[in-house]
């Protein structure tokens, strides 16, 4: 059962999980992202892996649902005994006591490792996320203005988990993670030995600042040293994987390679309410046929409406046009509908359209919750990494026992990720020299 895997991570939504997948693959780790907790037979068929990922949807779940979701992950950790078990959160730490509780995740996963040390990593510089003196900051959109997270124009007004506290120690204490000890970025100048001594003084959870990219190499050495002493439970964004992978894999990372242009028409499902995604949809109107779908009718399981939408999209794609199916109105709003039901309906739409148009081999999904639940509606079991379209926006390969779906290239994009041209990049691929690394596992 892949006893060589040093790192096991669970992504609390699919877009974040694919970012962690890409981060590990670009660092040279043999990595596969499973779309559910794999059994022993599936793991054995995957071959030797340095890093095993599981894509989940805990970020949108109640504590009871989270316990049910994470119990198989905990069982797998007991069996595999990884040195590092990473609960991969959104880089903005989207969570609340009643929805996507990071504290609940820790309480469920920690017993699988015995009595592990808990390290929390704040910040992911490549996505414009920074943690200074325990306070989280984030850019608004690609290369936008940096805001303290409780004043961020989107995250402070998130429809499910609005963030009103920037200090991660206080934010997480509300979820039951008490007595968190901060290791501030100003201490990093002390060097590895002094930092190790500082960390060893505390049995409480540690929160590590990340103020700039150079901090990740040092942080990786610290986390890996802790993991050699006893199993480590790490919480935070993909910067955890980036830091630890540097310590695990000391050889040069694989050379980046461009992503080729799509060979056929491209299908995108946009379910995000983010203004960033709205701008991307607007920018794509000249290269895509934009279909404005009724979120209310989709979520209500209107079978006739779904069938009509499938036929419309399939017809456009069969004629060679790219299609962008959007559940958000032109003004960026939509009817108040259950997000889970809408996302599952979107997944059903994708599945039916792909079955009717086998020429479509590249698909994009925009929206964290939309991605998580829509992909689960597809008959697939894993993703491997193809390359990077933009920071935080990887292109992956779908692995399925269904021939029609196997090999489909899939972009999963969170609402805040990507520049205005991200959907055009999905069509055209990346130019040489951009950050894009092919997957060497199970091509």
Automatic annotation (TrEMBL):
One of the Pfam families matching this protein, by short name: SBD_N
Location of the Four-carbon acid sugar kinase N-terminal domain: 7-243
Keywords, alphabetical: ATP-binding, Carbohydrate metabolism, Kinase, Nucleotide-binding, Transferase
Organism superkingdom: Bacteria
Residues covered by the Four-carbon acid sugar kinase nucleotide binding domain: 267-423
Coiled-coil segments: none
Protein family membership: Belongs to the four-carbon acid sugar kinase family.
Protein name, per record: Uncharacterized protein YgbK (DUF1537 family)
The species this protein was found in: Variovorax soli
């Amino acid at each position: 059962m892949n006893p060589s895997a040093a790192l096991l991570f669970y992504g609390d939504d699919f877009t974040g999980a694919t970012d962690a997948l890409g981060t590990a693959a670009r660092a040279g780790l043999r990595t596969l992202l499973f779309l559910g907790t794999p059994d022993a037979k599936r793991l054995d068929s995957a071959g030797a892996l340095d890093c095993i990922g599981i894509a989940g949807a805990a970020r949108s779940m109640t504590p009871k649902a989270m316990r049910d979701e994470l119990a198989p992950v905990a069982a797998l950790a007991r069996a595999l005994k990884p040195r590092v078990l990473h609960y991969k959160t959104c880089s903005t730490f989207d969570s609340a006591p009643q929805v996507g509780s990071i504290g609940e995740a820790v309480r469920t996963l920690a017993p699988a490792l015995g009595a592990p040390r808990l390290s929390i990593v704040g910040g992911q510089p490549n996505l414009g996320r920074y943690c200074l003196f325990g306070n989280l900051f984030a850019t608004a959109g690609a290369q936008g203005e940096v805001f303290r997270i409780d004043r961020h124009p989107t995250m402070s007004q998130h429809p499910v988990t609005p963030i009103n506290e920037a200090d991660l120690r206080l934010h997480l204490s509300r979820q039951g993670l008490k007595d968190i000890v901060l290791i501030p970025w100003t201490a990093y100048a002390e060097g590895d030995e002094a930092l190790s001594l500082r960390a060893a003084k505390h049995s409480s959870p540690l929160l590590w600042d990340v103020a700039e990219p150079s901090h990740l190499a040092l942080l990786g050495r610290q986390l890996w040293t802790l993991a050699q002493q006893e199993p480590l439970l790490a919480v935070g964004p993909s910067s955890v994987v980036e830091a630890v992978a540097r310590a695990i894999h000391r050889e040069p990372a694989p050379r980046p390679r461009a992503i080729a242009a799509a060979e056929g028409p491209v299908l995108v499902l946009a379910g995000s309410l983010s203004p960033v995604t709205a701008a991307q949809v607007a920018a794509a109107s000249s290269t895509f046929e934009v279909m404005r779908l009724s979120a209310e009718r989709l979520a209500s399981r209107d079978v006739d409406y779904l069938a009509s939408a499938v036929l419309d999209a399939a017809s456009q794609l069969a004629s060679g046009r790219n299609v962008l199916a959007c559940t958000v109105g032109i003004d960026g709003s939509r009817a108040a509908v259950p997000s889970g039901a809408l996302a599952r309906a979107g997944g059903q739409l994708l599945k039916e359209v792909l079955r009717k148009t086998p020429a479509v081999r590249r698909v994009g999904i925009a929206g964290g919750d939309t991605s998580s639940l829509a992909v689960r509606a597809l008959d697939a079991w894993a993703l491997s990494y193809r390359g990077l379209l933009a920071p935080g926006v990887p292109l992956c390969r779908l692995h399925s026992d269904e021939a029609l779906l196997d090999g489909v290239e899939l972009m999963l994009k969170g609402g805040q990720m990507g520049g205005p041209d991200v959907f055009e990049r999905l069509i055209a691929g990346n130019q040489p020299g951009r950050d894009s690394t092919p997957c060497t596992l199970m091509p």
